[in-house]
Amino acid sequence: MRTGLMQQGSQHNFAGRFILLVITVVVAFSLFSTPTRADEFIEADHVRIRWLVPEQFAENPQDKTIGLYFEVDPEWHVYWQNAGDSGAAPRFAFTSDQLAVGDAQWPLPKRLPIAHLTNIGYEGNVAYLFPAQLTANANNNVTLAADLEWLVCKEDCIPGFATMILERPIAGEQDQWSAADAGIIAQFQARLPQPPQEAPWQMDSLVFHADTAQLVMTLRGPKTQEVPTAYPVDGNVVSAAKPDVTEIADGYQLRFTTMPGVATPAQTDFIVVAGDKAWDFSAQPVSAASIVPPDTQPLMVLLLLAFAGGVILNLMPCVFPVLSIKLFSLIQTSGRGAAAHRVREGFMYTAGVLATFAVLGGFFLALRAGGSAIGWGFQLQSPVVVIALALLFWLMALSFIGAFEFGHSLMNLAGKANSRSSFATGVLAVFVAAPCTGPFMGAALGASAVLPAPQAMAIFLGLGAGLAAPFLLLAISPRLSALLPKPGPWMETLRQFLAFPLFATVIWLLWVLGQLVGDDGWLIGTGLLLLVSLAIWLLRSHRIIVKAGAGVMVLLAMVVAVKQLQHAETAALPTASDSAWQSFDAQKIAAARQSGQAVFIDYTAAWCITCQVNKKLVLDTDEASALFEQHDVLRIRADWTRYDEDITEALAALNRNSVPVYVFYPAGGGQEVLPQILTLDLIRELFSKS
Prior knowledge:
By secondary structure, the chain is an alpha+beta fold. The chain has 18 helices and 24 strands. The chain has a five-stranded antiparallel beta sheet. The protein has a five-stranded mixed beta sheet with strand order 15-16-13-12-19, with no helix packed on it. The chain has a five-stranded mixed beta sheet with strand order 20-22-21-23-24, sandwiched between helices. The radius of gyration is 35 Å and the shape is elongated.
């Protein structure tokens, strides 16, 4: 018996200890775990959240206001609907069959500077309010659930997630509120933005200045004791930083910094604040400031710049080997009718150049009218186009060294020396000239982004006229034609020598292909060139079956190469190995400028020869790097090798649609667009001015 009692007591003690352990674990879990569900109150890290609802809902169908009250620890904060440079606005999702809850109503916030960033939110307690109305399903009770997400921050941030549930009866003619909750609701309703008609000012204009990256708000009305400020509702358009406010004759002007690369929005939303009152200016139309195209005033200057840029393109390694074909054809032309033949070839070549530039210009203008944008050299953002050009230059180079000939002879590359050949050469010259942007072309092409369509088309045709002019003059001028050397053995030597710039161009194009699609680009490109070269060798055979097999092999190789390029995984574009140059990030640029840090942006592309020369000779030199580091410059490399919408919009904001473009934002504010041909002296001058 005693043994049994002892065993029974031992069992009771064990059971008691087990129950105590379970209770301890449950209590500990409830105390230290992150809240995921609660009824009417949440206790979380540095914030307490509770409902603001009536004790009893009235039966009437009138609109009601409910709220969620965030009690925040001192020095901690939660966020407004536009959280600013960092942070995140709280999210609310309500579920109820008896109560329809509308969108959040946000009390007027304040700016919260943190280091070099500006956030927008609330220090201390805040009530987020919501309109609500009983539904047809409401009988005797309201059941309401709210899924919440929030972020509470000081210097570090703590996210929170929870579900809150409440039940309230429905009875009587009036909502029954506790005095404390009714007072909180009234306090924060007074801080809600009011309609714009009640503001002491009217918004006269919102003007977007792309050249200075500013949005200027003009408020017309009386001077008041409280100078107005404003908060952007859309953080993707305007920076959260405090605007510069200046008095004007009949009101105020507020200047906001816009986010880098943003295009002019059709409209945007602000709340205007003075003291403890705010007004909601939603859906305000935005107009673009009229901008004089860069580096220009009259159209004639632009046309001269475009013409000069086109002339210089003739000397670029992408273009000259193509023109050499037609030059050889001019040299060989002799006998009766030679002069007329040369004139005809010159005009047909010019027609090919101008027609191609006109088509490109029309394409640009059509996209511009539709609100889209591409840039000069866009064809080299396509891997298929790049490999096609590499193959073309490879075949031309093999032909130049005598491995085989197109048709009858090298000089008849595009057919025999006739008008169709000259026109085709003009088309090809324009197509391959894209990566060789001349020093005067950036401003001219950039102007085409903002000028009316007829003037923009004139700029494209001016570029074409410059590219065609040297060959046309040689063709139509008897004196210049007489200066051409006589045919002879030297032509064969020069022809073979010109093969090597073409081989170099092929190597460069394969490198561009690797930048577009990753390491597989080299393998796909070189494999195609190898098989095409083998096919050329096989075509020397006298056996028809061998020639047919060579043709099939080339066709299959091209199809496979195109398919492989289309499915190749896009590799990330490399930046400088020491990470001194960072990839394009509009938010990072805006944060640096707001903090007073200087920013240098290199808009570049792998297929842009001028860009690569400037990198090697200037930007990536030890002296330039030392200057950038000495003056704490954020270096951004905006790589446009592949199409990038953000970079395209950033270029458009600068009135440019080609690369290279170099922009410097000094630490003290402002903006400077550098020439397309860089020197170390230009980099030194950036810092000698400060």
